[in-house]
Amino acid sequence: MSTRNSERELIISTVRKFVEKEVMPVASAMEHANEYPHALVEQMKEMGLFGLNVPEEHGGVGVDATTLAMIFEELSRGWLGLAGVIGTHSVMCDVVVKFGTEEQKRRFLPGMASGEKRGGICLTEANAGTDLQNITTAATRDGDAYRVNGAKMWITNARHGSTFLLLARTDPAAQPAHRGMSAFIFEKGAPGMTVSRDIDKLGYKGVETCELHFDNFPIPVDNLVGGVEGEGFKQVMTGLEAERLNVAARGLGIARAAFEEAIRYAQRRVTFGKPIAQYQTIQNKLADMATHIEASRLLIYSAAEKRDRGERCDLEAGMAKLFATETAAEVSFEAMRILGANGYSKDFPVERYYRDAPLVVIGGGTNELQRLIIAKNLLKKYKDKT
Ligand SMILES: Cc1cc2nc3c(=O)[nH]c(=O)nc-3n(C[C@H](O)[C@H](O)[C@H](O)COP(=O)(O)OP(=O)(O)OC[C@H]3O[C@@H](n4cnc5c(N)ncnc54)[C@H](O)[C@@H]3O)c2cc1C
Asked: N or C: which end of the chain has fewer CB within 10 A?
């Protein structure tokens, strides 16, 4: 899939205008109030942002991975929580597009693309995050349905969303465990699934992240992704490759927002008779921030282009995710230093960027995990054959 340059420019400038006009003026106040952005979500639906990676034949926009990354950068520059509403939703779309049966695509994708059916991914459990093979949530066949029992933690979009991708064990005895795991699409409605708690978070507010309980919750057999058991772990891992890129782009958006605030402030704030931007100490910071941001952008585009060529990009997406999100954490802290006390104040957005950045370091596979993925792929690529 590749998006024409003119089409890409139009999409990006539309999203940028939306962010600057509608999101930036309200983001900090809504984030501080932990208010769900209902009106902005409606506008995002109208703009087609829920169907970005859904092909046109199924009602989506069908943009390529590079354009998708650019859109995530723009949204996160305004408000990470808002980008979160389409973040895991787009991972779910990716899995259904790649692995769903034709009937599942027809049944789910148009609603997912319009945002009428929106949600995310239910993978993590209290005792299984990085080590996803340790999940215990089970789906047991019972006639025309599977009965799900267990609990999921940290599920973004769980309260306001309606449609989710679930990873569960269908063969608890399978060895290795991942061979006994299957992925399902489920919709809220039937009894047996409760959103039991909204987790109180450091940042990434506005969008909700919840704990879910399943008690004999029925999922129709027809909702088993691809119609085959035992493929779920592989399907989900492919989706997580896409997620690494969108999380990297979200890191880039936070870093850019923090840098833009810092360089503007540095030219206005005067100490000892000069704007602080004229001191070499501050210039060094700005130079390092901008260089890391540009390097993050190039790593993201390089990984996205490889994905657009239809190749796996685990190594490149891992590097992009690692570098761009560490950059988000560093740059938001450097911006806070440049703003001095104002950086620590809720009157300026930098404290929000600083609180949001750790989510992109931890979510989408921790950066410790990214290093393991990078090293594994490097050892494969540079295998010593002597
Ligand atoms: C705000 C937020 C939203 C989220 N949204 C979702 C969502 O929508 N859906 C979903 O399924 N999950 C979601 N998650 C969960 C997220 O994916 C996990 O938190 C993440 O994968 C890490 O898992 P964990 O928290 O269990 O940490 P653990 O796996 O317990 O890791 C703890 C520490 O040990 C390190 N570690 C673990 N194993 C290794 C190893 N082998 N080698 C080296 N270091 C290791 C980790 O890097 C980390 O530093 C969300 C998390 C957050 C914070």
From this structure: C
